[in-house]
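Need tokens for this chain, all 307 residues.
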Amino acid sequence: MTKKLFAFIILLLLCLRTFAQHSDENARIQRLKIYQDSLKELGKTMINNENDLERKNANYQFIKTLVGALKIPNSFLFPFDSVKTISIINSPDNRFRILTWHIENQDGSYRFYGTVQLNTGGQLKMYPLEDYSPLLQHPEDSVTDNHKWFGAQYYKIIPVYGAKTYYVLLGWKGNTIKSTKKVIDVISFPDGKPQFGMPIFDGNGKARKRVVFEYTRQASMLLNYVPEQNLIVFDHLSPPDPKLKDHPESFGPDLSYDGYKLKNGKWVYVEELDMRNIPENGNSQSDKDYVDPKKQALKDRNQVKTH
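Here are the structure tokens for all 307 residues:
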């Protein structure tokens, strides 16, 4: 065999291998897109259907379909960005992502679902999140695992790097027909497994492992991260009447602002923030900014009608 013929055969084999790899990748993406289409339709049903049983059945199917999709190798790289009924956020270092969503119960309360997917570069490694909220008597004092999760739908991950790296989570929690909750939580990975809560919030009367806000469902609350100042800023909530100080379902913003400032790896409570010193380009999130899946589905339908 001549050298030229040998080189040609090697080149041909490399081309065939590259072609096969591209074909496999295209097939993988196509499978994920099929799963995505199913998730998109199931998501609309589990959010918009007026029948409580139909919503919950759609949610169970959604979970099974999502697990099937995530089992496809390298699914971590697929954004599922057309599935508007769930929140999918990646940690800034791309170490993991969290997928969370909620189902509204017939009585106006909520149950939350989700999973933490690690970036393994291949095979699936995930930790399903089991909402333990109704049984968690003192959530601000609790450190839990994924089986006793204080359920929420997250919209922001704030990494804090150090000897023990952790990530602050900002989330919307809903609550009842009378009140809404938001939460500042923490996720860390001791022994490689997710753990929620950490004693890093100091001040405002106590040390907390997570921070929970409750306020009237008729109000809108700002919960904002300002990276330039390492500051989490939020509306100060107060009752409309001092007599209602023990009824957080009546609370609302009083046009003042407090926050937590990162100092030496912990978040220290700061009162009476001057919002004139807060950059407007911070990653804000108030209730009015929160993407209500029902409103999103209605918007999608209206867009279809106008095209």
